[in-house]
Amino acid sequence: MSLLGGLDRHITQSRPRFEEWLGRLVEVPTVSMDPARREDVRRGAGVAIGYLKELKADAVLVETGGHPMVVGGWVRNPAWPTVTVYNHLDVQPAMEPEWTREPFKFSVHGDHYYGRGTTDDKGPALTALLAAHYAVEQNLPLNIQFLWELEEEIGSPHFAKGLKGAAWLRSPDSVVVSDTIWLAGGRPAAPYGLRGNLAARLTLETATREAHSGLTGGVARNPLTELAAVVSACVNARSGRVTIPGFYRAVKPLGQADRAQFLKSGFQVAAFAAAHQLTKLRVRDRAAVMRRLWAEPTFEIHGFVGGYTGPGVKTSIPPRAEAKVSMRLVPDQEPAAVFSLFRKYVRKLNPDIRVEADGMLRPYAADLGGPYAEALRKALRFGFGKEPAFIREGGSIGAVVTMAERWKAPVMFLGLSLPEHGYHAPNERFDWGQASGGMKAFVKYFEEVSRIPVKRRVR
Ligand SMILES: [Zn+2]
Known about the structure:
Elements: H1 7-26, H2 38-54, E1 58-62, E2 69-74, E3 82-88, E4 107-109, E5 112-114, H3 118-137, E6 143-149, H4 159-165, E7 174-177, E8 189-194, E9 196-205, E10 211-212, H5 213-216, H6 223-232, H7 256-264, H8 269-275, H9 286-295, E11 300-305, E12 316-317, E13 320-329, H10 335-349, E14 354-361, E15 364-365, H11 371-384, E16 389-393, H12 398-407, E17 411-413, E18 429-431, H13 432-450
Parallel strand pairs: 3-6, 3-7, 7-17, 8-16
Antiparallel strand pairs: 1-2, 2-6, 4-5, 5-18, 8-15, 9-13, 9-14, 10-12, 11-13
This protein binds zinc ion (ZN).
């Protein structure tokens, strides 16, 4: 039987295993953010290794200095193309009072699977694993490796180090990340770009203790007022346009193909606003909203620290203040270069302000026209019966840029989560429709990629 011919039957037969394995994994609370869960995170890695071994795959626990990562899979012939599938097995905390079931108790209700981590990202990880197992059993000429991180929810602090230590992994020809959300059920969406990020703190001290505004006002310098003036000079509050000189210099204009993909995506402004409970927007035009979210940089002020915040008004002048800001960046803005433009500008406006970077992530955009994007398009159409929308994501995934840079391989996004699955939210769930369609899509992707001629590189 051909690879795709026996697939539906295989998927139906794998359902009990999928549910049992997802249940066992969900019931290990791999909350990477919680130091008290350190051993649970490690135990989750152990469960994942057990699954790989049960499928006769290689499996290795990699120490990173933080939570470990798991690598494994089937590398059977170095002459074949190699795909690396990335998922993460750590989860968000589950403290929200809205949970109607125990978050770390797995439950099946018809086609729905409940529990923290079902959709983000344990369900998609097992979907990819069972699809790969099928492809390997059918002897598809492709090496398939898994990279399961356990620190994604805390910003992948040891990912680059872990990757260096993961000697088992071959440099792949393609990377698939399965950890993104469609815009709506029934319409597959594949992001092909992510914004980067640059966070910074501005601090100013003008006295060693607070002063009375009646005794010193008019002479004392007010650090809150001065910081407010400086951040106001960085962004137009009404339009959102960033006003740091040179900020847009490296921004690649959005191409015709990108624009067309966005318009075809099915994105709806009202649904977007409702999902995030936004009551006022800067713009409501659909094309403008998508362009701003996915393809334009931003400057945001996240917090001012300083002065009196109790009831009423206390007429003191604060001695110091801090502004916490960040900029979402788009291709080809380089965070370090943007940071130096920003620092230079702030210094010019107010040389007494201290400027410190607080984390940088590069933006990422895959080639929409390449053979891997085409393979992904075919895969999603095969899995879900509909053309996927190629969109971008406004957020940042640190691991993506690290993998793209280390392996010089295209990174594709085959995400399976739906908006109603409750990503990072209470009552998280996944469903069999997305899992079974996802298995089909993964097998098709593997088949397509096994046929793409490999560019031989120095490995
Ligand atoms: Zn995730």
